[in-house]
Amino acid sequence: YTKEEGRNNVHVYDPKMNEKTADELSLEASLLEALADDQLEVYYQLQVDVDLNRPFGVEALIRWNHPDRGILSPAVFLPLAEEIGILADLDEWVLNRALMQGQTWYEQGYQNLVISVNISREFFKRRDFIERVNQALTQSGLDPSRLCLEVTENTAILHVEEIRNKLIALKERGIRVSLDDFGTGYSSLSQLNLFPIDTLKIDQSFVRKTSKENDAIIKLIIALAKSLGVSVICEGVETEEQLTLIRNEGCFQAQGYLFSKPVPFDKCEKMMHELNH
Ligand code: C2E
Ligand code: MG
Ligand code: MG
Ligand code: MG
Q: Where does the EAL domain lie (predicted)?
């Protein structure tokens, strides 16, 4: 897609279409410009070692600072990005930006901080995916061991061999990989063994709603992580009660509103500074 084609899409507008479709069309067209016009932003959410109450990492999360609508969340525009074929470009943009900012933090003394970046299936499956990741690392100067790529279970179960080869290539480079939203996808336990991953991220749905079933699932994932020899992060921790629960089950890394919402770079830096002093 060129910018020109993006503009032309606006003329597809048909008054018979319902409001929402027109709305989506106009968002789609402006999304093409957002990438070029510097309207995208990376927010960061702390990942916390709950025993030390210290951040060990941050997750980079894309935001669209829309000129008329303000900050838009990825749930609104990532599906559109996928439809118009630019999701991988957005991921790559976030990767580059997050690595640059990660390098800034590294130079400020946050040398153990790991920057996690979400990778869509579209990006992951590109033939030149590994080269592009390498390029982003080289350009930023950040050490590969400071980067973690988050892929969802459903990305990981496509074309097992291809995925596996790419994961091995990342691993050889010293890059970490975590399985995002774990427990909600369709991976089988036997496949899990084939993938050189570092971390399971327990999906927030299991933490959000307290129930016997969810409790059991959390327990199960923690036990699974232990037996696979990988670490485990619990997503979506909002309350002290939830924190106590996951601690009791043996999970000591967490991410959630209890610690921080995703915030812009400067604000995240301030929070890290306060937590470290
Ligand atoms: P995710 O990767 O699972 O990221 C965690 C999401 O949960 C974030 O939503 C975060 O704000 C939210 N969250 C974290 N803690 C809490 C909590 O305690 N309570 C609640 N209610 N929510 C919490 P966000 O930023 O809206 O992102 C949503 C999803 O969009 C992400 O889920 C990820 O799948 C996708 N995404 C975000 N940025 C990117 C990106 O750069 N590339 C790709 N491919 N996907 C992205
Ligand atoms: Mg994620
Ligand atoms: Mg997740
Ligand atoms: Mg998610």
A: 24-276
Whose C-alpha lies nearest to ligand 1, atom 11? 262
Partners of residue 41 on adjacent β-strands = 63
Q: Average pLDDT per run of 10 along the chain, which is 277 residues long?
A: 45 52 81 91 97 95 95 95 95 98 97 97 95 98 98 81 91 96 82 89 92 92 94 97 93 97 98 87
Nearest protein Cα to ligand 1, atom 4:
61
Predicted ipTM? 0.98
Instruction: Name residue, tokens 């061999």.
Output: 161
Nearest CA to ligand 1 atom 22: 236
Q: Which residues approach ligand 1 with their CB closer than 6 A?
A: 45, 61-62, 73-75, 78, 91, 94, 118, 120, 150, 180-181, 204, 235-238, 255-257, 262
pTM above the 0.80 mark?
Answer: yes
